[in-house]
Design goal:
four-stranded mixed sheet, globular, alpha/beta, 123 residues, 41% strand
């Protein structure tokens, strides 16, 4: 049976996170559910053919805010890196050619989640 993995990240300010992830990393909002209080209870951001889910810190105990780490495959790491830098992303690992043929960089979003982007696509 095929399985799909969806990373879920928690944010104190999910609206700001959606806006920033769109500007910095090129993600596209695919689904945003607002709760009765007007806050975002669940959102899905499109990343190519895949999705990342996020919620506000009010979902659960908020213990997971800023504790995620995701790897995202990109076709052009240099162009993606330039977009992230232009949006003010904190670069945690510079563009690096790795021994197994991937070109990667690391960034941290404003709430502390770590992101790795590169050309390596696991089989």
């Amino acid at each position: 049976m095929p399985r799909t993995v969806y990373p879920i990240l928690q944010y104190r300010d999910p609206r700001a996170a959606i806006d920033w992830l769109e500007r910095a990393f090129g993600f596209e909002p695919a689904l945003v559910h607002e709760g009765p209080d007007g806050g975002i209870g669940h959102a899905e951001l499109r990343c190519g053919d895949h999705r990342v889910m996020l919620s506000g810190a009010g979902h659960g105990d908020g213990a997971h805010v800023g504790k995620g780490w995701c790897y995202v495959v990109v076709a052009d790491a240099d162009a993606h890196h330039a977009q992230a830098v232009a949006a003010g992303a904190e670069i945690t690992m510079p563009l690096t050619d790795l021994e197994y043929g991937s070109r990667d960089y690391g960034a941290r979003d404003p709430e502390g989640n770590d992101w790795s982007f590169g050309t390596y696509a696991p089989a």
